[in-house]
Design brief:
single chain, alpha/beta, eight-stranded mixed β-sheet, 8 helices
Length: 229
Amino acid sequence: MTFGGIQKLSALDFPDHLAVTVFTVGCDFRCPYCQNPELVRGEYPVRISEDEVLKVLKERKGFVDGLCITGGEPLLHRDLVPFLKKVKDMGIDVKIDTNGHHPDFLRELLVGKLVDYVAVDIKAPPSRYPEVVRAPVEVAKIEETVKLLRETGVPHEFRTTVVPGLLKDGEYEEIARWLKGAPRYALQAFRPVRTLDPDFGKVEPTPPELLRELCARVAGYFGECEVRG
């Protein structure tokens, strides 16, 4: 397993954990506002081996108690399985960030008890997915991921990046109805920095008041709704 980046300490990426965060390379979506264009395109110049990651975890064990795997899209990588077995053998909790498009592999990881927390990035209401992610997408797979997380009870959250002007009025409520009953939903600020589509670099950052307004409108659908700046 090879990664395209590492953050050796984060208090924000994994709820209730101090974590090491690693970034996988490659993604099957092409969201124009994505802020990791090199990772998405597989062009990231940094290459970090799994042995380096395991070494960092070993050195920090007792202080760090979690590993967050983000991307890119982590579930494109089948070699996650042996890597995560090594991480779990160290007594480290694992969080996966995913676009939700790979429910079969996610199920395998959950059945194997290799993942302790899942965060799914929800890009749009179902009818708008192909338009927003600019890639072939089977919305049924994302719906299967939502159902899987409900049925397994693994701690999880859904989150949406609020890009001004991207979704229409009422579409955040449409997403909320789709995900109704989820334990946590987060609305994330967009910042126009190094976007996959350079045109999105001209979009204004998300106003904090918009995040608060949207959160108030959808909070009743979830156990918890929060804004992330």
